[in-house]
Amino acid sequence: MSILVPFKAIRPIESKVLSIASRPYDVLSDIEAKEACEGNLDSFYHVIKPEIDFAADHDHYAPEIYQKGADNFKRLQNEGLMVQDDEAHFYVYQIIMNGHKQTGLVGCCSIDDYFNNVIKKHELTRPDKEEDRKNHVRYSKMNYEPVFFSYPHVNAIDAIVENVKNSKPVYDIKTDDDLQHTLWIVEGKEEIDSIGKLFESDVASIYIADGHHRTAAGALVGKELRDAANGAEDDGKRYNYFMAVLFPDNQLNIIDYNRVVKDLNGLSEENFLTKVRSSFEVEKVDGILKPTELHSFGMYLNKSWYKLTSKSGTYDDSDPVGVLDVTILSKQVLEPILGIKDLRTDKRIDFVGGIRGLGELEKRVDSGEMKVAFSLFPVSMKQLIDISDNDMIMPPKVTWFEPKLRSGLFVHDLSE
């Protein structure tokens, strides 16, 4: 069963919540993040993306980058803009986006649950991104950002969460992207104890929804700190845990995660389309094509949209991974036609979250930066859980969860 423990969050003072809170580190580019916090030195972007404080051509993985993030966070503490709670708590975090509401528990998961596969993965991590997130933890001894987890919903946990929501929240803010973020503190010892016991008794597995790199970083650096201290799993030290927000699986919303490719691997457009037709029915359409069912794709090439429908025999509905549209696209187009064998490392492909809209695909192709784009039907929570439970791995960049957590609302100190 799973372990979830309370912690003493380092949080913004109420008057500074809006100026500190930021989107997660990987949602905006460096340029977009720099523009988003222009004139606001308190923005948490200066902590989680400290490269924005350097020249654009500065090495993003240089030691001074990570030290700057740690220094920026320390300034927020020294100036009293972020303060640590006196007692360990769980927190209830609700996000509302376009009428969709999801409410999660903020706490700390066990690094050993990660190593023992109680916390289940569905993606491989990229070594460079994993090392980047590990360095942020190493330099600060903090979990700056929570990971986004899910668990099979438990009625008794839902009841505690709903009861906590009857109390006064510590934050209730609307951010510039029109999302409502509300945070409550779980104050009562009985409720805190009950949450921990219910996870231990009723939650057999926890699933990574968003944040495989942050999860790996939190667990691996936690173990580094434990080994350096000659510590133990049961010594009560904070390095045994990393911060997460855990949502019931029946509240989550997965949207599409699309692909753009820089070139046609030396093919003319005509030859490329001919090869695509060997695996798909290809139909030119008017306007943007957003797939509405499995095994149907949109493709944008030379200012035109096409509908691609998978032909029989090009996928395996009995295989939890083989049935995925991202797998079909890789096996039928990206690998054999475009020569993209490794989605994790190939620089010719990029990924665009559906929150940006399919117009973003057109923009990147029309600009000449990319040559072709593909829109996909989103995967479901059931597919994600099936794959995770079977210890299988999805291709990279498959799930895009919305709404996103806000960073900077709570931080976990590993040095205690």
Question: What topology does this entry show?
Answer:
Layout: E1 4-5, E2 10-12, H1 17-20, H2 30-36, H3 45-48, H4 63-78, E3 82-84, E4 90-97, E5 100-110, H5 111-115, E6 119-120, H6 127-140, E7 142-143, E8 147-151, H7 155-164, E9 171-174, E10 180-186, H8 189-202, E11 206-210, H9 212-228, E12 241-248, E13 254-255, E14 257-261, H10 269-276, E15 280-285, E16 296-301, E17 304-310, H11 325-334, E18 349-353, H12 359-366, E19 372-375, H13 381-389, E20 400-401, E21 412-413
Parallel strand pairs: 6-11, 8-12
Antiparallel strand pairs: 1-5, 2-3, 4-5, 4-10, 5-12, 7-21, 8-11, 9-10, 13-20, 14-18, 14-19, 15-17, 16-17, 16-19
Helix pairs in contact: 4-6, 6-9
Describe the protein's architecture and organization.
The protein is globular. A hairpin with a 5-residue loop joins strand 9 (171-174) and strand 10 (180-186). It is built from 13 helices and 21 strands. Helix 4 (63-78) crosses helix 6 and helix 6 packs across helix 9. The chain has two domains: 4-254 and 402-413, no CATH class; 257-377, Conserved hypothetical protein from pyrococcus furiosus pfu- 392566-001, domain 2 (2-Layer Sandwich). With 416 residues, it is of the alpha+beta class. The strands form five sheets. Strands 1, 4, 5, 6, 8, 9, 10, 11 and 12 form a nine-stranded mixed β-sheet that branches.
Q: What does the main sheet amount to?
A: 9 strands, mixed
Give the number of helices. 13
How many domains in all? Answer: 2
Q: What structural category do the secondary elements indicate? A: alpha+beta
Radius of gyration, whole Å: 22 Å
| Mean pLDDT over all positions | 95
Q: What is the percentage of strand-forming residues?
A: 15-25%
Ends distance: 26 Å
Q: What are the segments in which pLDDT stays under 50 over at least 5 consecutive residues? A: none
Coarse shape: globular
Record field, number of beta strands: 21
Q: What percent of the residues sit in helical stretches (DSSP H or I)?
A: 25-40%
